[in-house]
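Dear Dr. H.,

I hope your travels went smoothly. While you were away I took the liberty of generating a structure for the chain from your last submission, since the lab meeting agenda had it listed for discussion. I wanted you to have the full record in hand beforehand rather than looking at slides cold. The sequence, exactly as received, is reproduced here:
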Amino acid sequence: MMSSPLQWQPQQIHNNLLTRVAVLHTEVTWYQTTFTGIWFGCFESDPEVQDHPVTMLTRFDPGGFFSLHGHPGGEEILVLQGNFADETGVYPPGTYMLNPEGFIHSPYSEEGCLTFVKLRQHGGKTRKQVKTNIYESPWKSGVIPQIEVKLLYEQMGFPEKVWIERWQPGTALSKVVESEVKEIFVIEGTWSDELGNYPAGSWLRYSPDCSYTPSSATGCMVYVKTYPEYATRFIVGKDFRHPVETIA
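The corresponding predicted structure, in token form, is as follows:
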């Protein structure tokens, strides 16, 4: 007999930015939510920031949807499988979106989809919106010849930087020491360091001053984000209200 699914409850998970974290895709716990056909696979959560996880996988069952809601702290979305949709269009795998503070939408998926999502980390009313597809934009040569890059987000006045890296098979680096917080989400292949191997769907966070020796025997493609430890999560005031849906 199958056990009943876990219901998501606000909780602290990997919320200390000064600790190294690595979560394999096989270790992700899926939580049922109160939204129709929506599941959370949490990487990072802090109930002092919001009830939902702040870094997660979101799975839409076929026909799954969210009601109309706002994003006072903005959001990042990377579509991994299936088609993600909202009022602005239908977005296939590889679509990357940064929706800034104040963005409003009603996401859904007719066929079902899987997305990597970061919430409440993109405050600032002048932050630009980004919509692109990582499979369509051209690769550029990186500092290291075996690693190609695609810049997704960088904006003067904001500390975060987001990009995609493609590692050739057999690429291995000597010791790396980070000056900021660095996050890795493995999109394809396997990323490795001296502590383990991390296949597609895995998420890692390296703290400032953390040293490690990254490599990829198989080759891989990874989402990368860096930011200083003082880049706090966006705390929403108690007076915030989501928009109200109207029936025409």
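Two observations you may find useful: The chain has a mean pLDDT of 90. The CA atoms of residues 129 and 211 lie 33 Å apart.

With kind regards,
E. W.
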